[in-house]
Amino acid sequence: MTVTTLNTERKLSERFHWIGRLLEGWSIYRKSLLGKIGLTLVVLFALMALCSPIPPWVSPMYQPMAGVDPDISYSVGPSTRHWLGTDFMGRDILSQLLAGARIAFMVGVSAAFMSVFLGTTIGMIAGYAGKFMDNLLMRLADMIMVMPALLVLLMLAALFGQLSIWFIVLFIALFRWPGVSRVIRAQTLSLKHRPFIEAARVAGASHLRIIFRHIMPNVLPLSFLYMTFQVTSAIIIEAALAFLGFGDPGTVSWGMMLQWVWKTGHMFRAPYWLLPPGICISLITLSFYMLGRAMDEVLDPRLRKEGETD
Amino acid sequence: MALLVVENLSVGYQTQKGYLHAVEGVSFSLGAGKSLGFVGESGCGKTTLGMALMRLLPSNGLIREGRILFDGEDLLQKTDEEMRQVRWQGIAMIFQAAMNALNPVHRVIDQIAEAILTHNPSRDKQEAYEQTRGLFQLVGLSEDRIRDYPHQYSGGMKQRAIIAMALACKPKLIIADEPTTALDVLVQDQILEETKSLQREFGISIIYISHDISIVADLCHDIAVMYAGQLVEYGATEEVFDSPMHPYTKALLSSYPTLIGEKSRLVPIPGETPNLIHLPPGCLFCDRCTEARVSCRSNPPVWLEITPTHKVLCHQCGKHCGE
Amino acid sequence: MEVWKYISQRLIQIVVIFFVILTVLFLLFRLAPGDPVSRMVDPNLTPEDAELLIRELGLDQPLWMQYLYYLKNFFTGHFGNSFHYGQPVVRIIWDRLPNTIALFTTSIILSALVGVFLGKIASWHKGERRDTCLTLGALITHTVFLPWLALIMIWIFAFKLGWFPITGMISEEIWLDPGAGLWAKSLDFLHHMVLPLATLFLIHFGSYLLIMRSSMLDTLKEDYILTGRAKGLPEKVIRNHHAAPNAALPVVTSVGLSLAFSINGGALTETVFTWPGIGRELVFSISHNDYPLAQASFLLIAIVVLLSNLVVDILYAYLDPRIRY
Q1: How far is B295 from chain A (nearest CA, A)?
Q2: What structural domains and CATH numbers belong to chain B?
Q3: Percent of chain B scoring above 70 in pLDDT
Q4: ipTM of this model?
């Protein structure tokens, strides 16, 4: 019975320790102006995404893709019916914008999660395993890093016809994991020789256990940090792909909206159509970047404002 | 008149938690051709003192009060431009070899020549290079390594190069901040011997900062023991070593092993340094002092002159010295 | 010399990577869904010509033989004819290559130099208004969506203000005019290049500025900077002669790491501005199912990226003596 109580105690204190660190990180994060702005903007975009089902629910003419205004079948400026105006087919731009937010988050978060998952796993293996494995994996990473993701996706579009959004997400992840893996590998290498790892090994822990129980928790904060950067690059790649006309034709993303405004020659005469999607893409990129910078400050004490430590 | 006279120097750092008293009320003097060693543990303010003498403190550093009379002129009254002239020509500095004291992307010869050319703009590059070669010979470095980059040098070679660079403008005073700390003992010894002979040859005054009291004992005429930013004992090296007065000095000496004499236990000094932001009112050492009395805690100690060349900052010494 | 060993190592790595790309492309083209033959053979050819081409490309042979044919064709410069232009692909991409190099190289050099310069200045005035403006400016410009920025640039400067041409690289009237001299032609070329160059520049200089700024701030804390001050060097000399060369090294590394990203941007810019470069050709050929042209454009872009990486590595080795010696 004593053993079980000890174990539960230990588990509880470990859990609290984890929460304690989170709260500590939050208090540091809060001090950063960039972090606050970034977080606010991201929340705003998230709200946009969450509100995207509202317009179609209000009226079918607000469907981003299929809805058409019975009275308008061309592009017209903002009005009370269409707060941002309509596109060349008479579809409501605001509902497209909201739908685009949903796609952006979907693409961004899934691709980021996948690439970080891959990158962290591969990075940990490369850092922990022997020289051969390390070399092999890092050479592979180098090769992938050299390739321009967008152009390779274009080639794939050429060969496979239209690409579905999940295919795009998967491939973005396959292209972006090397960047993460390098950083995680470096961190793993420095952790590998720390005394507590040696101690675990001496105590008889298997390699797998060491990786998941000891190395991973120390590497995860870095992974989270990189997730924010990965979100932005995923959103940009998808937007660029859609802009060029190779996105998933069934989705309305901001890049797709820009493609329509460009290809239908409305570039010069429909600022209400041209400006919102571009501003959204740029702003969401900026906000995640700010988020990432603030998180960086939390993780790396050297980046904090001078004069705070001893 | 002594080459360097420091009067009541107080230096500190502005931190988020308040003003940190790094150096408090330090006074000493140094004659031409003489050497003075500053000893104390890490954080006692000796490096800050060295930096302050050359006015090289970081942006949050502040010289609160005092005078630094170098060659009769108060350095604290000089403008930035005037101070630039004093640096290296008047006072030069030798840093730890382990530090990144040499710029990795420039050749060693260029960095030394730069010092020469900055203060002697009338000379041309060739003359500076010639002079640098002479300096290399002086410190025992091989001339064919002169065009190398710093990362190609060993620790001992880097230290010698740094010494050569310090001598480049023939300064009157050299401040050496832990120059041999990261080197192995053999090299340490060599460099110390060379430093001594250079000093004799050129009559340069040296301020030697170290936590290693044995090196200071070997090299310096006078010794100044620092604790928590204050000078606690000051005098001729022999006198201080033969009859250390301050409890801290005594503790320092007994924490080093001796080759001769009886084998005795090494006694570490218990406790920690005081809070330098909120200084306690009395003696700063009393918490760790074996001879402290109640009065030590409330009254700041005063200087007691044991001999004209040996004084100590302590309440208790009057009773022990019997003077 | 050490540096030759380093360069030759990198060269071998690049060749290996290129071969991998070549092979993967080969496999993709043959194994992707659909009829591989239709990708290699122009659907507009007569059946006899088509038969000839199939024999030539070895498409009736087993896969490994096709691979050998593929390699042979690559090294002898036989990329086939473009479906769309009806001309040999080699001629087309050879034509486009200088245009891309001109735009791409100029934009990278310009944004790196200006970014480094401004980053240096921002670090000197850390915390002041100048720094805040520069940092904020860098942050905003470098997160703007490139194609959208291109559209805005065209809209404002070409359409509304009419200062610059809307599309293209040259004005045919000037270049076809037998009387026009080199000066007039060059000026026209530069006139067309301003907007695409400005777009690429705006997007890229920000990241170099930010990296240089933080690199300078780190470098200024180094011990050799203290040595410089102790030596009595003027502040300007310390910053420019001692700090900046060290601080610039991470920027060079960053240029190398972001080359893939830069070429993406290059292709997008060329497309929006209708700048006749390889990037645009790639996009164009893909939308028109012109497979031979697409394949060749892609391979050429891959070569450009790999060689740029090599150039950056050589530059870094030149700038950092710790690598050379």
Answers
A1: 31
A2: 4-90+169-320 (3.40.50.300), 93-168 (no CATH)
A3: 93
A4: 0.89
Give the distance from CA C195 to its chain's centroid: 17
Q: Which of A245, A281, A289 sits opposite C287 (nearest CB)?
A: A245
Of B114, B119, B151, the CB nearest to C322: B151
Kindly list the residues from chain C whose CB atom is less than 8 angstroms away from the CB atom of residue A143.
Answer: 17, 20
Helix (H) or strand (E) holding C252: helix C244-257
> B95 to chain C: nearest residue by CA?
C227
Chosen for mutation from B60, B105, B163, B207 (greatest number of chain C CBs closer than 10 Å) is B105
Report whether B162 contacts B101 (CB < 8 A).
yes
Sign, CA dihedral A155-A160-A165-A170, equals: negative
Number of residues assigned to chain C = 325
pLDDT tens-digit readout, A92-150:
899 999 999 999 999 999 999 999 999 999 999 998 888 899 999 998 998 898 889 99
Looking at the whole model, is its pTM more than 0.90? no
For residues A305 and C38, what is the distance between their CA atoms, to the nearest angstrom?
62
Q: Do you know the residue count of chain B?
A: 323
Closest Cβ opposite residue C32 in set A154, A159, A262: A159
Q: With contact defined as beta carbons under 8 Å apart, do A35 and A293 qualify?
A: yes
Residue C138: how many other CB atoms lie within 10 Å: 23
- Looking at the structure, give the CATH architecture of the domain made up of residues A95-303: Orthogonal Bundle (1.10)
Do C319 and B105 make contact, defined as CB atoms within 8 angstroms?
yes
User: How far apart, in whole angstroms, are the C-alpha atoms of residue B115 and residue B168?
Assistant: 7
Encoding tokens for residue B209?
Answer: 């900062």
What phi and psi, each to the nearest 5 degrees, are found at residue B55? 55, 50
| Cα(B1)–Cα(C71) distance, integer angstroms | 87
**Angle at alpha carbon of residue A252, lines to A251 and A256, rounded to 5°:** 110
Contact A147/C261, CB-based, under 8 Å?
no
- The total number of residues shown for chain A amounts to 310
**Dihedrals phi, psi of A13, to nearest 5 degrees:** -65, -30
Closest CA to B90 of B54, B46, B123, B37: B54
- Largest Cα–Cα separation, chain B: 67
- Interchain CB contact of B78 with C (< 8 Å): no
